[in-house]
């Protein structure tokens, strides 16, 4: 019998969520983010790409414009006021390396979060399906940037730009992880999370009606019930919590 999920810690005020694509957070973590913002916490989003390679039927430049717009709409629905997009990293071809670590480190130093949020970066999902290189490389770069942010000498040019080291990151919360061990009660905010996923209408339509994630309500309600089985029966979203 799997162990019950522990409640996520609440001794923090600022979070920075860093993921590869628009909509990555809306497949679960955004429900928890709605609960956090409702409790008065501040959450900022950082997208490594604009998801420009996500729809075969749409030109990448147009897809980037549409998906960026939909991400802003989705974020607002869960109380997130600031969404940033990196330049220089291509959807479908995100590379782990110093440029990505530097860009994420700079964002951490700008926003000075207590907790970082990202998506599963392990090789496989809970289902056993293989994870994408964009998710794997983004998450690994974020984990390393959490340490880089506090080291003045890793990227000394950042301090020269006025981005002083930040050693205040305490946790990384990984949504969709097969190693999830904590959860957030989303019973009061699930409708907000569903609306946020539905804001990605262009991409959901691209998936087609038979795709298991195309129906936002069915998908997220099922997920929250599943996680709730290990959280005293309360609808929940689960995370792997890693200390930094």
Percentage of residues in DSSP E strands: 15-25%
Overall strand count: 8
Count of discrete domains: 1
What is the level-2 CATH architecture name? Answer: 3-Layer(aba) Sandwich
CATH H-level homologous superfamily name = LmbE-like
H/I helix tally:
8
Taking all residues together, what is the mean pLDDT?
96
Strand pairing plus helix content: what structural class?
A: alpha/beta
CATH topology, anyone? Answer: Rossmann fold
Element order: H for helix, E for strand:
EEHEHEHEHHEEHHHE
Helix share, percent: 25-40%
User: What coarse outline follows from CA principal-axis ratios?
Assistant: globular
Main sheet specs: 8 strands, mixed
Distance between the terminal alpha carbons, to the nearest Å?
29 Å
Order of strands across the main sheet = 1-7-8-6-5-2-3-4
Rg calculated over all Cα atoms: 17 Å
Uncertain segments of ≥5 residues (pLDDT<50)? none
Tell me the name of the CATH class.
Alpha Beta
Protein name: GlcNAc-PI de-N-acetylase
InterPro entries: GlcNAc_PI_deacetylase-related (IPR003737), LmbE-like_dom_sf (IPR024078)
Keywords: Zinc
GO molecular function: hydrolase activity, acting on carbon-nitrogen (but not peptide) bonds, in linear amides
Q: Top keywords for this entry?
A:
about 240 residues; alpha/beta; Rossmann fold; eight-stranded mixed β-sheet; 8 helices
